[in-house]
Amino acid sequence: MKPISPAALAIAALLASPAFAQQSTTPAPADNVATLLGAPAPTPASQARTSAAASTDAALELKGETNAPAPDSEQNPAELSITARLNSEVAARDELADQTDRANQAAYARSQSEYKEAVADRQAEIERQAIDTQINAQSRAEYNAEQEDRYQKAMADWRATVAACDRGDASRCRAGSMPARPGT
Question: CA–CA separation, 7 vs 154, rounded Å?
Fold first, then answer.
């Protein structure tokens, strides 16, 4: 059996899609205005007329012509009131969406500001800790150097005492033990 190439599958899918689209069993959504006015649901024939009218409008627009609505005096008053009500609902939803967007943008700006402040605080804390560490290290080094100096002096004194004892100075022979090294 010979494998089918992906290109052949794509072409077959493109050719089959119009056939499947025509067999769709999903009903078209009802027209809100027609439903609100109590008009019957659109039939396939009326939908075809609407589609033809839309394509005619598109052709007119391409020529630079437009389909102007009739004056309000010639409009159906029920349709006008429904349209006005729907327009006000849409405007209210748009205003609510705008308010929500503004609130979200303000909350985002506050969060950004708080985040930047927290980052700056943390950076300052890190710098303070580094300075404290450096100061502690310097202090520790100075303390250790002082201890080492004391030890070296004590060792020099002890060695001098031992040397005097070795030379026969009995008064210096009770020098005691050797000094302990700091940190041991």
Answer: 94
143 within 8 A of 183, measured Cβ to Cβ:
no
Q: Do 158 and 179 contact (CB within 8 A), yes or no? A: yes
Q: Token pair of 47, please?
A: 């939908």
Ordered alpha helix ranges (H), 5-76: 6-22, 32-37, 44-62
Residues comprising the chain, all counted: 184
CA 179 to chain centroid, in Å, comes to 65
The verdict on pTM exceeding 0.85 is no
Cα–Cα distance measured from residue 64 to residue 57, given in angstroms and rounded to the nearest whole number: 11
Sign of CA dihedral 75, 79, 82, 83: negative
Per-residue pLDDT of 75-102, as tens digits, reads 888 888 999 999 999 999 999 999 999 9
If we measure between CA atoms, which residue out of 175, 153, 151 comes closest to residue 163?
175
The answer to whether 67 and 53 are in contact (CB under 8 A) is no
Close Cβ partners of 47 (under 8 Å, ≥ 6 residues apart): 28
The DSSP line for 73-99 is GGS-HHHHHHHHHHHHHHHHHHHHHHH
